[in-house]
Write a structure and sequence with these properties.
This protein has two domains: 35 residues, no CATH class; 50 residues, no CATH class. The chain is built from four helices and three strands. The protein has a three-stranded antiparallel β-sheet with strand order 1-2-3. Helix 2 crosses helix 3. It is elongated, with a radius of gyration of 20 Å.
């Protein structure tokens, strides 16, 4: 699925299109599966944080593999204009407070 997403994002990139063509030409199984196109998008992962001041904040989670470092980078975001995005913006203004 990632290869299809990359091709959709960079349809004129010769490295991407060349890779797909090489794989299709080199493997009848790959070519058959590619032509079927029966892939499904991965479900969007969400996580809810419970903050003592603003309450629950639900964010989307995207994970990127950093294979050269054997690590994963997890990004949390909320749709622009949503109550969750507003809560995140409020937290950036509120800052970190340490209980006394």
């Amino acid at each position: 699925m990632q290869l299809r997403a990359t091709l959709a994002r960079y349809p004129a990139d010769p490295a991407v299109t060349g890779l797909v063509e090489d794989l299709r030409g080199g493997s009848p199984d790959f070519a058959r599966l590619w032509e079927r196109g029966d892939v499904h998008a991965e479900p969007t992962l969400t996580k809810t944080f419970r903050h003592p001041v603003v309450g629950p904040i639900t964010v989307d989670c995207d994970s990127l593999a950093l294979t050269d470092r054997d690590q994963r980078l997890v990004l949390y975001s909320a749709p622009t204009g949503s109550p969750d995005a507003e809560a995140l913006a409020f937290l950036s203004v509120l800052g970190v407070t340490v209980p006394q």
